[in-house]
């Protein structure tokens, strides 16, 4: 690995910190921060990353950011991946999910009907670390029951066979909308005749008329129209079942035990245990044993032949052998052995796969899906870099963590606060002034 600090660009850190804070200020909606101006709602894992950055200058505001997510929590414990903006002009977006069809959805606001990677407990602990003991206790008290209810729901609904791994029912639950393993699954299991007809007749460009994202961002940097249709179709199916998991799974062909989601769950289970310990509370026994089981079950996602982890099809129990950045996420989980972590780091440092000039691409360079500018099929994202840096440090790979930290900061400093970046030339892609890029840059600068 080359030493970036020796010949890399010099970053004016204070200035970058101030510019990052300005991005967060511009996207601040009072009770929460939107991901960018063009995504006007609140997202679960975005707010967790945002709070992790905000805590350095304003822990109180950071706490408010994540406490606001609790307002969207469903009566069954689920924390939804989106809380919709109430403005009249977003009626169609609320309508597309119609959360009110579920008896568990909150009355006063509209949300989506799925969740997102459960980053909340880690964000709570990291924000709490910036508070004095009294404030921390108060904040942890406020968040404890909602967190226990959320993690309990994850096992009750999403681990129906008590196997230790939770299943996901829509790619958006993983936060990587068009990541190759999920695209593969969508094409194999979720291909209604009318979408096939649209594809055959090359009518998919017509979908651009109803897409909001491609009006503001170059369509070549977003998911394809076919992928957008397939994702929309999954929402339609979930909505028709009123988000009732038994009905959704009944004769379903489509559910995935995702490697990113389950790795993040393991780490956040650990943080929830830390919160309970601080408050001198006992976690429910069943939850406690479920948590332990997940750590062991993650090993079932390991493929000895390629020496990496993959997501698994919940129905067939077959690994989905399609490399993506998800394969590196067990580093963040922190529960795998040092030997496994070494294998993953070797893969990370391979110039033909992940160690490009602006690492870490969302898909390795040698994948048939690799496309430097297309969303979760090649670009480098600051949040996944942050998760990997954190994992590297946990396993003692200090040098690699520091190299990646510096490269990430330098990339943002020279390109700007983009949503994602080309791993080849570092060009900024997607939306500008993206909140988690700014927030996690602050966190990387302060660590
Ligand atoms: C996209 C991303 C997802 C993010 C959301 C809001 O859907 O794939 O990870 O949470 O935008 O920024």
Task: Considering the chains and any ligands shown, give keywords for the structure.
447 residues; mainly alpha; two-stranded antiparallel ribbon; binds alpha-D-glucopyranose
Describe this protein's structure.
With 447 residues, the protein is mainly alpha-helical. It has helices spanning 4-7, 13-26, 44-54, 59-70, 91-97, 120-128, 133-158, 180-189, 193-200, 213-216, 225-240, 245-249, 259-279, 285-297, 330-333, 338-348, 382-394, 398-415, 435-445; strands spanning 42-43, 82-83, 256-257, 302-303, 308-309, 312-313, 420-421, 428-429. The strands form 4 sheets. The chain has a two-stranded antiparallel sheet with strand order 1-2. A two-stranded antiparallel sheet has the order 3-6. The model has no long low-confidence stretch (mean pLDDT 94). Bound molecules: alpha-D-glucopyranose. Alpha-D-glucopyranose (GLC) is lined by residues 35, 39, 43, 45-46, 175-177.
Write a short abstract of this structure.
This protein is mainly alpha-helical.
Spatial extent as radius of gyration: 21 Å
| Helical content (DSSP H or I, runs of 4+) | 40-55%
Distance, first to last CA: 21 Å
Number of strands: 8
SS-derived structural category: mainly alpha
Which cofactors or ions or other ligands sit in this model?
Answer: alpha-D-glucopyranose
